[in-house]
Amino acid sequence: MSTTGNSEAPAAPPGRTEVEVAIVGAGLAGTVLAITLARAGRKVALIDPHRVHHDEFRAEKTRAEQMGLFEKLGLGSVFRSISTPMTDLHIFRFGQLFERKQTFEYAFSYAPLVNGMRAALPPEVLLTVGKVAEVSTGPDRQRLVLTDGSVIDARLLVVATGYSEAVRRAIGVERIEESKAHSLTMGFDLAISPQEFGLQSLTFYGRRIADRIAFLTIFRIGERLRANMFVYRTVADPWVRAFRENPQQMLLDLMPEIAERCGNFAVASEVEVRQVSLTTTQGHRRDGVVFIGDAFVTTCPAQGDGIHRVLTDVECLSSTHIPAWLATPGMVADKICAFYDDPIKIAADTRALRASIYAKRITTETGLEWRLRRLRNNTARQLMVFGRRFREAGKPAEPRAA
Predict the structure, then answer these.
(1) What is the tally of structural domains in the chain?
(2) What pLDDT score does 392 carry?
């Protein structure tokens, strides 16, 4: 079946369609790439099983650095229209207010983010709703056959299917697990309004190794007060089942210092969970096809690097590699490898993987090396708290109003 993603974009005609670039997967990576390529005058087909992206829980906050990448890609205004900005961030450590950061962060729900980007697709983009049944790749042309029998013929195939494995398997590319069930993200609404909460954003770091908690962050999405908690556990862990059954009581026990500020943690929604494994890709250096975003590598959402990786992939491809590839005949593996070997892409992926692994180890490892690292870090933080209190104690008291 073919249809449009918005009122402007035309449906791909039945039968056979020829394009320069076929993108499979209209999540954030695929949709943003389709927008940037189409704006540059490229003929693009975007294929996805769903016209409207379904509700999907993922980490729901990103930083100013990622906003800069949206701006660079010409999508800053679109992202701002579907996100909630924050500039005053309260950070709790050791059960007390540790730091106030004055910096931009942005909160969003993933499905509205993707659907908002789809609404920004230029009318030239052929958005085809359907599933890929067959894939043929080669040094010159790539051929997709959909389940309805329609065919899309392209010079380049981009796989942006996230965690889905069907197209990867059809091509013969393998996902390698670097850290199975690495972390778990839990998301839920709090039964308190943003106005009652009073703060823009609050982050609370776990205090005990046994809790296996990276941190809890509470923030506004529109008129909802939302919480994301990152833990190093599996879905089947009895602790996770107990949390889902009675999140309020467990949060009261874990974080009593901030309970009053958060409406005593009364929860107004089901607790959603998302398990993440750290993975890389093997066998991807081949003719005619390139893998991007989570279809290439996955990292822990606790560090906030997922959107950064995606947008870095899109920026590298749309500004440098795809224009160069299309400027000369053929689409051999040597061409494609220029993207995988791009130092900017390598740096983004490497940073995200290293941060994911380090964050879990510094939170959960009990060996001497990691105990000493925690002691060093916590001592430095305690000294920062002491220094701030000392400076504040030396300041003259503000005069009282008459």
Answers:
(1) 2
(2) 75
The confidence band for 389, taking pLDDT boundaries of 50, 70 and 90, is: confident
Mean pLDDT to the nearest integer, 193-220? 94
The CATH number that applies at residue 46 is: 3.50.50.60
Note the pTM of the prediction, 2 decimals. 0.91
5 burial via Cβ count (<10 Å: 0-12, 13-18, 19+)? buried
Report how far residue 85's alpha carbon sits from residue 83's, in angstroms, rounded to the nearest whole number.
Answer: 6
Residue 283 domain flag: yes
Helix then strand then coil, % of the chain, to nearest 5: 40, 30, 30
Average pLDDT taken over every residue of the chain = 92
Backbone angles phi, psi at 238, to 5 degrees: -55, -35
Average pLDDT over residues 107-118: 96
Three-state SS string across 209-273, please?
HHHCEEEEEEEEECCEEEEEEEECCCCCCHHHHHHHHCHHHHHHHHCHHHCCCCHHHCECCCCEE
Tell me the longest C-alpha to C-alpha distance in the chain: 82
